[in-house]
């Protein structure tokens, strides 16, 4: 009975359309009007809207929606490399590949499929990928919306290779904010971080919250599973819950770097902030046949509600 209900949810609340380049995208909807769009190019979530139809993810007005260029915004998947911490192209190749809809994925726990609109996607290693990263893998991604409009991403990477391999990973999440100078992140205070603006030198966070006055490009290490991004002007808070993702990358390019990026508006840094659930400092190692799972849940709550309760939260899900 439960399985047929999940299938009904999926068919009733999911539609496949095409973007202006003719690439398939999947639209997820909830009965109350929240929605999300997922492109088969990169398995990238390109839109997440609340029940009032307000967009919650940032996408640059200058984003290039044409393969092989990655889309500047939404939630790119960084795999099998985050940033430039290896020999591959920036953030790896998964965000630049065409994924397929996975019609018969291995089962997830029951609570991951009930009462949700969802889609399952899959990426397998190609001959082209094997030339630069010689490992056979299957990467499955489930994107779902709960009835409350929360956005969930579950990644499963399986080693189908004859030898072990390791990888770094991130959900490179571009949040849409009102004004970056009014934003604060709670949950990362007192943590060590690697600062990419200082050759990945290690520092310890001193502030009682993270605020923004200039360019920031950091990886916070061994972070809690619940983090809050408070948007004072909009009086709302993004709550980020994660599992299997010990690190958090925080990035805003600020004024100077914004002007150097061709697919990013000069002033757009004011309306965006990347806060990524990630595995960076200690890459995931998989033996043949092993599988890794990384989960992210994004929700939005009134700021007053969240700041009172955030310290009481101890687990991601």
TrEMBL record:
The keyword Isomerase applies. Gene3D superfamilies: 2.70.98.10. It catalyses: alpha-D-glucose 6-phosphate = beta-D-glucose 6-phosphate. Keywords: Isomerase. GO terms for molecular function: carbohydrate binding; glucose-6-phosphate 1-epimerase activity. Its EC number is 5.1.3.15. It holds the Pfam family Aldose_epim. CDD domains: D-hex-6-P-epi_like. The keyword Isomerase applies. GO terms for cellular component: cytoplasm. One of its GO terms (biological process) is carbohydrate metabolic process. PANTHER family: APOSPORY-ASSOCIATED PROTEIN C-RELATED (PTHR11122), GLUCOSE-6-PHOSPHATE 1-EPIMERASE (PTHR11122:SF10). Belongs to the glucose-6-phosphate 1-epimerase family. This is glucose-6-phosphate 1-epimerase. It comes from Clitoria ternatea (Butterfly pea).
């Amino acid at each position: 009975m439960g399985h047929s209900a999940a299938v009904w949810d999926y068919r009733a609340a999911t539609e496949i359309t095409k973007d202006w380049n003719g690439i398939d995208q999947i639209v997820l909807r909830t009965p109350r009007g929240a929605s999300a769009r997922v492109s088969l190019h990169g398995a990238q979530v390109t839109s997440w809207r609340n029940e009032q139809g307000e967009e919650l993810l940032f996408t640059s007005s200058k984003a290039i929606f044409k393969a092989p260029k990655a889309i500047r915004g939404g939630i790119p998947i960084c795999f099998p490399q985050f940033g430039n911490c290896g020999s591959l192209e920036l953030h790896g190749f998964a965000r630049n590949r065409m994924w397929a809809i996975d019609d018969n994925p291995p089962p997830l726990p029951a609570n991951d499929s009930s009462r949700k609109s969802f889609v399952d996607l899959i990426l397998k290693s190609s001959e082209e990928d094997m030339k630069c990263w010689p490992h056979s893998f299957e990467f499955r991604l489930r994107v779902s919306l709960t009835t409350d409009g929360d956005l969930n991403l579950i990644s499963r990477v399986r080693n189908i290779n004859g030898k072990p391999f390791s990888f770094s990973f991130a959900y490179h999440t571009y949040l849409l904010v009102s004004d970056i100078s009014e934003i604060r992140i709670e949950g990362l205070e007192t943590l060590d971080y690697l600062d990419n603006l200082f050759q990945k030198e290690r520092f310890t966070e001193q502030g009682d919250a993270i605020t923004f006055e200039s360019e920031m490009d950091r990886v916070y290490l061994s972070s809690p599973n619940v983090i809050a991004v408070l948007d004072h002007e909009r009086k709302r808070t993004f709550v980020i819950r994660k599992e299997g993702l010990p690190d958090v990358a925080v990035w805003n390019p600020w004024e100077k770097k914004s002007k150097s990026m061709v697919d990013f508006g000069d002033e757009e840094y004011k309306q965006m902030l990347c806060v990524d659930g990630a595995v960076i400092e200690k890459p995931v190692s998989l033996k043949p046949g092993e599988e890794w799972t990384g989960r992210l849940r994004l929700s939005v709550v009134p700021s007053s509600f969240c700041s009172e309760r955030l310290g009481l939260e101890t687990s991601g899900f």
